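for ur thesis appendix - Transient receptor potential channel pyrexia, putative. copy paste whatever u need, i formatted it the way the template wanted (i think)
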Amino acid sequence: MNGKRDVEEQEVIDDDDDDNVSNETEEIGAAGNDTDQPQSLQIQEIWHKKEILESLNILPGSQELQSLIAARDYKRVLSHPNSSLTGLLLASFSGNAELLQAILRRSMVVNVRDREGRTPLHLACCAGSAECVKILLDHKAMPNVWNKEGVITPLHCAASVGNIQCLKLLLDAGAILDAGLTTTGFGKTPLYYAVLSNSINCVEELLKRNASINTSQVYTETPLHVAAAMGFASCLKLLLDHGADFRVKFGTAKSTPLHLAAEDGNAECAKLLIEAGADLMSRTNRIQTPLHLAALAQSVQTLELLLMHRADPNAEDIDKRTPLHCAIVKSSRSCDSVQLLLQYGAKVNAPDVFGYTPVHIAALNEFPNCLKLLLDHGGDVTKRTNGNVSALSFIARRTPEILKYLERKLDQGIRLHDHEIGDVDCEIKLDFRVLVPSLSSGIFLDSCADFKKCTIPMSFRYVSYVLLVCNFSILGKELFQIAHIRRGYIYQWENWLQWLIILAVFVTLVPPNWLSLKFVTWQHHIAVFGIFFNWIELMVLIGRFPMFGLYVQMFTKGAVNFGKFLLAYFCLLAAFSFSFRMLFPKYPSFNSTINSIVKIVAMMTGELEFEDIFFNSEDPLYYPGTSHIFFLFFTLIVTVVLTNLLVGLSVSDIQGLQTSAGLDRLTRQVELVAYMESMLFSRLLNWIPKKILRVCHRSALLLSSPRQFTLIIKPNDPREKRIPKELVKEAYKCVSERRGIQSPVLKTEFITNYFERNRFPHSRHEIYVSKRKKRNK
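the 3d part is after this line
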């Protein structure tokens, strides 16, 4: 074995490995970067080789021993008085296993330290020398020794250089797997440094031995944060597959792993996190979403990935800036990012807290191409900042070349509408919408005046008085109907509905300070029913119109049949309700009898929630097997059979109503007319002056005398308006068919058509055209 190698030849931690260990710093979206790949990060080792050498150089006899080791004079090294301290540390750091073995034969003190508390085992792991590590462990070196600051063990060093052999030797020797997980190590475990060095083998080995992926400390940097920030997709996938928590936030910025991946512009890492279920709307301390950071990083791939998974393109940060504001930061890729955000509905005129819109920012940064894109998507140049400076002012000062483009855009509002340019009838359309600012600008908001003695708005008080007057009017009408109809009144369900509305209005309008606080809550319950009954009554009134009567009757018929349907099968629904309550005692929808019945009715519509019930990790099934059988029975019997039966009944009822639609419409009209006439001729109205009653009777009756049974109409008289024109046409057609005349046409229609065909010209242009036609003939 050629073990005689000098210190310079044994510097395992060389300059090429500077990118394997710790702190990440990044310039987000540096100017001129035209790629979507993660940008290079400045990484530091646990201990830089210069730092270690400086510490070793101040040890007693260090310079002399280094010269002897360089000259391969190991005999004099062993005889040197400082070989047991300085020589041991130098041999470990240089990875010189032969010299290390020789020193340990003479001195059994293996756990010596330098001024920073580093032992030979620390230095051997930093050098990545598995042979030296094995020799030290065989001589009882402590695998769990900490450095002076109490944050680094040899296992940290082995993980940081990504040496799987050293890692396994230390773990087999009893090294603490999660060293540094407590506050002493600030949450930086060997797994943390293995991920930081992007050593897949070390990460797999640590995870295989059940290393802790997550930490209980708040806002601590986890290995998942490191993998996302560095863009190490393979390590990220390993951590996610082993249950790493992607919701943990890190540092004062409160960034999630998805924030760090978006900030780095790493689409692959972002995709893995999104597929694992990361929240796209998670916020940092500046209320920024991952989409904001992806826009700042100018990563088109990451932006598209987030937008495809429905990230909000109009989310606002602490300064009310949207991702579109953030995208206009660099000229190299800004247009691509801006165009993508606009395609997904980003608001082009959204102002930030200072009143700056994306158009303002593009003009200030002198991005003409980006400005054209914003203007093509409706950018408003009249928008003003809080300092009352319009976007057009910025454009004129910073990007004057856009003024010509804006002028051409305004000219597009003038275009040919009809006929050719040389034609006499040529028409040009002027579209002034390009000059009109958006409807959202110019809105003035002001707070209402405060009323110290009254907490109810004044407008509500006036509306309440109007509502009381209307309610008393309806009450008077109902009392009149009771006095007029008496027995028949109680058999009409609409009358009961109106009484419920009257009572609900009176109870709701009682001032709250007249009642106790407990009763005020009931006011809200009653108000809900009152609002519902009012709109039901409005639907009934709309159903009295011939045009809408059929549809309201269809609804009424269907509702009645559905009530009968539920009553007939209520026992079946109750059976499933009580069964599910016993089978799923912890499920919120079945925690009470009422909730169970309501849930069963809702499940009839298809709201089964199979995954939430049977695959809930927090609340496992108590009675597997039986639960599956009853759920299957419910799906087949209720959701399939009963629902299809209900649909079939509704279809048959609708078909029956359609066949008798005409007769039903006439029946409703006759009932309404008879009801109105009976009230108009009621004895209860005898107190009204007879002249007024006579006028009302004459306007309501078609025949003025009870002894007159015929009505003479003039079908060709356009002033005939006593009966509808449709009835006049049908009567005229009936008489004409009996007289043998085909295709009868009323003279009123003939006269109208004649004047339409032979109307006289009125305008000068029409007179000129008619004269020219006569000359041509």
